[in-house]
Amino acid sequence: MLIGTVRAARPLALFGTLLTLFFAACQQKEDLPTPASTQASTDAVGVTGTKTVCYVEVNNNNFNNIAKYSLSSGQPLFDIGIIFAANINYNTSTQKATLFFNSQVTNVLNNRATYIQPVQARGTKVLLSILGNHQGAGISNFPSQAAAQDFAQQLANAVNTYGLDGIDFDDEYADYGTNGTGQPNNSSFVYLVSALRNLLPNKIISFYFYGPASSRLSYNGVTVGSKVNYSWNAVYGTYSVPNVPGLAKANLGPAAVQITATSSATAATLATRTKTDGYGIYLTYDLPNTNSASYLSSISNVLYGKATTYMP
């Protein structure tokens, strides 16, 4: 994959709290239409207007950097922060998919008082990204509904154990067929999100619109769009509306930028398109440890009419 195009910059993942000082800001983000999907509105982040989402590569960067960014009015910039990433491993003895945390993800989860709770204290929701690990297991090839249910239970256990706000699905790096595993099938992802929604009725489920799962969004009359809250574009530096039937504009993110690679001019242009077209999500990726307020202001000035500030 090309750097600055698709998630090429992501390394392979084999691998004094900021409280509510500024949270009660007087000004809100601009209003957008109420989500048409009942399920999607259940887990709305809690602020009106375009929601800014940010993935953090915890192999390299501190997740609680999310809490350091605010609008000039004091409101948190990021509505959703995503821990990138946990993995789907494959147990060759049991022939089951297993949830795996590398040492960096384990550190974040086990030390949630340091890394996660300061972010949540500001009102930002924290999700855990889930993707393959080159072992043949992924979100698109569960061989049965029971197998999907089993993995959904592992995810629900993680959310409940670590006090997270939901799960983000990413169909990358599975290497389907490795270890004798099956190829993607039409039922797998639908079974998975349906089971997870039943287990976590009031949590957020999102879908990074990429990979085999992006073309397998309906099975036996059930759609992924009726189970997930949000979906966003996966190609950084571009504008493309995810084709997820059942999700309203307010729950879709066609703009995607890599903070460390996409130009600020492009970021501003994509923000303008997002606002003009009335979409509810703006996706950012790879928040570094250094101060990125100037770059993020190119987005927030367009979306909210306010600059971004940074508090170390």
TrEMBL record:
SUPFAM superfamilies: (Trans)glycosidases. One of its GO terms (biological process) is carbohydrate metabolic process. InterPro entries: Endoglyc_H, GH, Glyco_hydro18_cat, Glyco_hydro_18_chit_AS. Residues 1-24 form the signal peptide. Gene3D superfamilies: Glycosidases (3.20.20.80). One of its GO terms (molecular function) is hydrolase activity, hydrolyzing O-glycosyl compounds. Transmembrane segments: none annotated. Keywords: Glycosidase, Hydrolase, Signal. Residues 50-306 form the GH18 domain. Belongs to the glycosyl hydrolase 18 family. This is Chitinase. The lineage of its organism: Bacteria, Pseudomonadati, Bacteroidota, Cytophagia, Cytophagales.
